[in-house]
Design goal:
Low-confidence stretches: none
Order of helices and strands: HHEEEEEEEEEEHEE
Structural class: mainly beta
Oligomer: single chain
Radius of gyration: 24 Å
Strand content: 15-25%
Strand order of the largest sheet: 5-10-6-7-8-9
Length: 253
């Protein structure tokens, strides 16, 4: 019997772990309450930092309820143009200004937004990585739905009561910095629970992988496998409906 392949080792607990001590936690909006639905609340920016695992620019904002005088702090995704001397507004009556959080039906067409909720109260799910933003195309059916252009250029309809942040996510030049050496790429992948360097399966020995071995680097048999095959054999194109190249043929007019 051969060795355990990488897909088998990933199934066991404790081999590929993330460093929870260096993780700074989840970034989310305030819990959707009456103040944000009908009015607004002011928050003061306290600190900027970058999450060492997700590499997201984060800003710590402190809120104070005017009625109960209770202070609370939340971690937001930082946008370009903010500083520690500023304060941001959250709520439906907030002004359209960089850094403010307000629902989609209050924002004009063509405005750049980020950290968008999929549904009201989810806390921000779309466009959270550095340098990304979404665009508002149209408001549909009396501002019940809003058509959004995502960073992937796909178009999606979202509830108009979902909240978002005005502006583009900061730290947009992160990908322009070269890694320069393999060690930097190793620690970059390690923080994201990814394997680096990654050896091709056809370059391995037959004891290490089903695609290994042979006088030339080739699989030697169809790469499609069944959904019900055993774990050591379940690698390649699993339960593929089709295989091979797609032929895009254009009609000549």
């Amino acid at each position: 019997m051969g060795k355990l392949i990488t897909s088998q080792r990933k199934g066991k607990v404790g081999i590929f772990k993330i460093k929870k001590k260096s993780n700074l936690g989840k970034t989310s909006y305030r819990t959707l309450d009456y103040i944000e639905k009908c009015n607004r609340i002011r928050g003061k920016i306290k600190k900027f930092f970058i999450n060492p695992i997700t590499k997201q620019p984060i800003v710590r904002v402190e809120f104070c309820d005017s009625t109960t005088k209770i202070r609370s702090s939340e971690s937001f995704i930082s946008v370009s143009g903010l500083s520690t001397t500023q304060s941001i507004l959250c709520g439906s009556k907030s002004s359209i200004k960089v850094g403010n959080v307000l629902p989609l039906f209050r924002i004009k067409l063509g405005c750049s937004i980020s950290n968008l909720e999929e549904f009201p109260g989810s806390g921000g799910n779309i466009s959270k990585s550095s340098g990304t933003f979404c665009g508002i195309m149209t408001h549909l059916s009396d501002k019940i739905l809003t058509k959004i252009k995502l960073p992937s250029n796909k178009i999606k309809c979202i509830d108009s009561k979902a909240r978002c942040t005005i502006g583009v996510v900061s730290n947009c030049g992160k990908l322009d910095i070269p890694l320069m050496k393999a060690g930097s790429s190793y620690y970059k992948h390690k923080n994201r629970l990814k394997r680096f360097p990654k050896t091709r399966s056809v370059a391995k020995n037959p004891v290490d992988h089903p695609h290994g071995g042979g006088n030339h680097q080739h699989i030697g048999h169809p790469s499609t496998v069944s959904r019900r095959c055993p774990p050591g054999q379940k690698t390649g194109l699993i339960a593929a409906r089709r295989s091979g190249r797609k032929n895009f043929r254009k009609d000549i007019q």
